[in-house]
TrEMBL record:
Catalyzed chemical reaction(s): UDP-alpha-D-glucose = UDP-alpha-D-galactose
Residues included from the entire protein: 3 to 364 of 702
Molecular function in Gene Ontology: carbohydrate binding; UDP-glucose 4-epimerase activity
One BP annotation, GO: galactose metabolic process
Gene name as annotated: TDEL0G04910
GO CC annotation: cytosol
Name of this protein: NAD(P)-binding domain-containing protein
Pathway linked to the protein: Carbohydrate metabolism; galactose metabolism; Carbohydrate metabolism; hexose metabolism
Family to which this protein belongs: In the C-terminal section; belongs to the aldose epimerase family. In the N-terminal section; belongs to the NAD(P)-dependent epimerase/dehydratase family.
Any coiled-coil regions, as ranges: none
Cofactor names: NAD(+)
Organism expressing this protein natively: Torulaspora delbrueckii
Amino acid sequence: MTESKVSGKYVLVTGGAGYIGSHAVAELIENGYKCVVVDNLCSSSYESVARLELMTKHYIPFCKVDLCDREGLEKVFQDYDIDSVIHFAGLKAVDESTKIPLKYFNNNIVGTLVLLELMEKYHVEKLVFSSSATVYGDANRFPNMIPIPEECPLGPTNPYGHTKFTIEKMLQDLYASNTSTWKFAILRYFNPIGAHPSGLIGEDPLGIPNNLLSYMAQVATGRREKLYVFGDDYDTRDGTPISDYIHVVDLVKGHIAALEYLDAHSPDGLCREWNLGSGTGSTVFEVYRAFCKASHTKIPYEVTGRRPGDVVNLTVKPERAQRELKWKTELDIGVACSDLWKWATKNPSAFQLKGLKAEFAG
Ligand code: NAD
Ligand code: WQD
């Protein structure tokens, strides 16, 4: 049993109203943890927290706070007895980050800095961080490193990736300054997909979705006309790029495994990176077919030109997480597509037109 469960202390989940964070809260509560959610709702809705309470039959303390708001965040540390932090909060759109990099640097890097300073002040030493396989950049420049191991040299290619890279370095430097205290798990993952099997929580993209599955779901529910497949002339089995897709429920189980690993290694300090992935790459057409099958629809599509920044194969090597965290994926892309379809059909506008609004929260 982990320290936080024994002590009844809280796990602070930053970004807990968002896509991955809300699934993590569900999983944490199911596993007996107490959570407090901090989120500024810049890209999510309080409705997800309300749904979580419905699902788990637990009260979930929610604080509408921006991580850059030191005073607001400090109050959370004062009001709740926090044992550890799972840090999801951040902006994540690659293309947007190239247009407004300063906003990304401020939100992601400064937000994390404030969080770490308060963790130090309040002696909260355990943190699980949502990094991204985007820190590897185009790993295909090292052909013998596909699937990508944690040892692959890093080389992010966009401002979003630079924020993740910088935060990883901040954590490593902080750990090095006091190796007996800090316990950091850096989790790198690429394409979380799917939704909670209840159909009550799922991804709620703002505006036009960037990601393949979110876009396809909106075509299947009639919100968009057709899918644009960004290139079918790659050197792969069907010409479309290969990525490592992971069911969001598997992914959040990996976060809990990491938290447990940090606990098991107390009182020693630790800073370690783990890839969370299936290790099995799927092409865009394979995902397309899986989603058509799950949704019983023939989604119209058109092949267009390559999207800048896309690379041929982004499959991660998950053996370190399997060996050390005793974690591996269990749900394939077929299950993820079915769960996504359930979420999309039950909530055609996601959270956006529903129930409680952000201004009433927190
Ligand atoms: P999301 O946008 O659904 O969730 C992020 C949450 O953080 C949102 O609820 C948002 O309102 C909140 N937030 C953002 N900035 C904040 C701030 N300054 N203060 C307080 N709250 C803030 O995104 P997600 O897909 O759930 O991603 C969660 C994390 O995982 C992010 O850090 C993202 O970079 C990382 N990640 C995501 C993916 C992916 O494809 N979804 C892949 C790899 C890594
Ligand atoms: C997957 C494949 C597209 C949309 C991104 C970020 C990454 C990480 C996860 C946070 C690609 C193709 C897509 C569409 C398409 N995020 N595609 N038509 O690019 O692998 O990863 O999200 O860390 O940093 O870059 O995910 O879902 O956008 O694309 O053909 O409308 O689907 O070309 O091959 P990606 P994606």
